[in-house]
Amino acid sequence: MDPLSDVFALLKVESALSARVEAAGPWALRFPAYRHVKFGGVIEGPRWLWIEGSSEQVKLNPGDFYLLTDGRPYCFASDLAAPVLEGVEVMAANLCDDGVVRFGAGQPHTIGAGGRFVFDQEMSGWLVDLLPPVIVIRGDSPQARSLRPALELVQLETKTIRPAAAVIAASLASIVLVNILRAHLASDVPPVGWLGALGDPKIGEALRYMHAEVQRNWKVADLATAVSMSRTSFSERFRAKVGLPPLEYLTRWRMTLARHVLRSDTDTLATIANKIGYDSETAFGLAFKRMFNESPGRYRARMRVAGSGPSKPGSQILAPTFEA
């Protein structure tokens, strides 16, 4: 798998929630702070989006998708002059029997659907911390090509309550999220940090090598040769793009994998060490303690007491809450 797929494979989704909102006339709604990632798409009619405390107001048009990632309260509006009401209260009071929220009268008429993801806290930094507060993918942009069919499915699935709706919604939301990130990577202003490095021809290739053969005893010279660069140029470019030296990045990814396995499987410490590239349980233990200030065995015991292992990765779909 590629690095982004690797990270998603370990991102245990604690919740994926969605709702459809059909609103008419002038309105403005404020929604409270949230964890990790909010997402949505505009099905019909324009609307405005802004983060509380920010002067930047983004106009969204039909076909546009957005991600919100910094956790601050945010607002949607059809009219910037409309009084701002509490969104959760308005939506709870206007929830219809078919699961759609409808309120207001007159023009303009807007329809949108959205929700949120809450990820495993220990893995979320690989993704959430590297994203800007707002990502907007315009529906008429070349990058949105793969999102257009997803928006049609969002529209179909949110029109009314259907059998197995929660399962479909969770899967569809994941497709939307991945495709928004792909579009963001392909945009004219690529992201910074690890996520942006995936789009760099040389550094992205090096990251794929490290993820594909995490157990290999990589040297910086080996990676530089693999991507046809000098050792010095590769090291400088890798650090500039990723924010870490190559082998430090590799160590952090290995330790991330180790924590996942320690929580989800019953493999021995020696087996885990071998799988992620350490010659001995001792070497693995020293590297783990150096990074997390506790031994692998102690970490595994603490996670089991906390009730998080051993288990297999998966999704937990909770009852919908009200989101724009």
Automatic annotation (TrEMBL):
Q: Which UniProt keywords apply?
A: DNA-binding, Transcription, Transcription regulation
Q: Where is this region: Disordered?
A: 304-324
Q: Where is the HTH araC/xylS-type domain?
A: 204-302
Record-linked SUPFAM superfamilies: Homeodomain-like (SSF46689)
Q: Which Pfam families match?
A: Cupin_6, HTH_18
Coiled coil (UniProt feature): none
Which PANTHER family does its entry note?
Answer: ARAC FAMILY TRANSCRIPTIONAL REGULATOR, HTH-TYPE TRANSCRIPTIONAL ACTIVATOR RHAS-RELATED
Q: What is this protein called?
A: AraC family transcriptional regulator
Supply the source organism for this entry: Rhizobium lentis
